[in-house]
Each structure stands twice: as C-alpha cells, then as structure tokens.
Amino acid sequence: MGGMPRPPRMSYPLRGPRRGSYYTFAYGGGYVRALLLFLVVIFILAFVLTSCQSDIPASTYERQKAETGVAFQNDCIVDELGWFDNIPQTERRLQGFYDETGVQPFIVLKAYDSRLTTDTQKEEYVQSWYEENIDNEGTFLYMYFAEADADSDVGYMCYVNGKQVTSVMDAEAVEIFWAYLDNAWYSDMSTDDMFVTIFDNTADRIMTKTTTAS
C-alpha cells in the first residue's frame, strides 16, 4: 500500500453546497448592447472552459480492470464537513467507477484537527486510517484535510492505493484524477456531482488508451 501527497492546487477550498457565478446586465444602451455584452460573456466562458479541459494528461497504455475479489462497498464516503447533500445516493453513483476499473473508490473529508500540523503528519494519518478502516487492498482512498477556517482556507489532499489496484491507479492514472479534480473544483456543481464526475471521467480516461492530452 503506497500513497503520494498532493499540495493544494486550487485557490479556494471545496464547499458544499457550492454556487456558481451570476452575471447582471444593466439595460442602458438598448437591446443590441445588452445582447452583444451577453455574447461576449458567453465567448469568454466558452474559452475558459475549453482551456480548463485542455490539460488532461493522455492515457498512454491499455489498462485491464482490476480483479481484486472485493465487492463494491456502498458505505464509501465519510463527510465530517457536511459538504455532501445526499451521501447514500452519491455512494451508489460511485459504483460506476468501480464497475469500469475494478477499484473501490473511497472519499474522506476530514474536519480540522489541530494535532495534524504538518504534511507528514497528515500523510501518516491517511495511511493509518486506511489500515484501521479498510479491510482490503482493492481501494483507492482520497482524503481531504480541512483547515481551521474550512470555508476560506485550502485544505491538504492525499491518496492511498491498495496493493491490488496499483496496476490501474498508477502514477499516470493518478495524475489524470488530479487533473479532473482541478477542472471540476472550479465548476458550479454540487459536491456530490463533482466527485461523481471526477471519478467517472477518470475511469473513462484511464481505461482507454489515448494518444494526446485533451
């Protein structure tokens, strides 16, 4: 079982429920001006979204679904922050990742703990958490450590691979996972939809050989 810590890659922390941006137009120059302004905003948003989606690493070789003998576990989310809206439903939706990859997904959103002050302490904590709470080696565990001000300060992220899934969630696959997480983090999706989208997109990407990034 091995893990690699990841530094915060976003400018603000995940929140739930999260809200998108809203644009207000002042009618002062007539319908045409408002329409042109609207079209400009749409163009900018399309450009930004296209740019965000252009940094997903390529999946450079064919992976085979992991045969771990581990049945899908519905109880695969621990949310100490209250960011998920419907945990049972979201856990069921995460089965899509398992069905495609053979890897059990597990998400832990950990509340601030003043005893965990360094990255090393957090990395050791997530390793211990896996050993104490997960009784198989077929799981990919993602853990988010919130800061004291969970709504304003970026937390720390780690993952731990079970020994049986390293052939699927290898270094390249994990980079693809982080890339999708980066992109979805800025969206207006709920926390539930965001994580399901990240895992679904990761599964689709890593289980198909691609020639270039996209």
Descriptive notes:
This protein has 6 helices and 5 strands. The longest helix has 23 residues, at 30-52. The chain is 39% helix and 12% strand.
**Oligomerization status of the protein chains:** single chain
Q: How many strands, which pairing sense, and closed or not: the largest β-sheet?
A: 5 strands, mixed
Radius of gyration over C-alpha positions, nearest whole angstrom: 19 Å
Distance between the termini: 30 Å
Identify low-pLDDT runs: 1-54
The main sheet orders its strands as 1-5-4-3-2
Residues in β-strands, percent: 5-15%
Chain-averaged pLDDT: 79
Shape: globular
- Give me the secondary-structure category: alpha/beta
- The SSE string, one letter per element, is EHEHHEHEEHH
Q: Helix amount, in percent?
A: 25-40%
Count of β-strands = 5
Q: What is the tally of helical segments?
A: 6
Tags for this model:
single chain, 214 residues, alpha/beta, five-stranded mixed sheet, 6 helices, 5 strands, 12% strand, globular, disordered N terminus
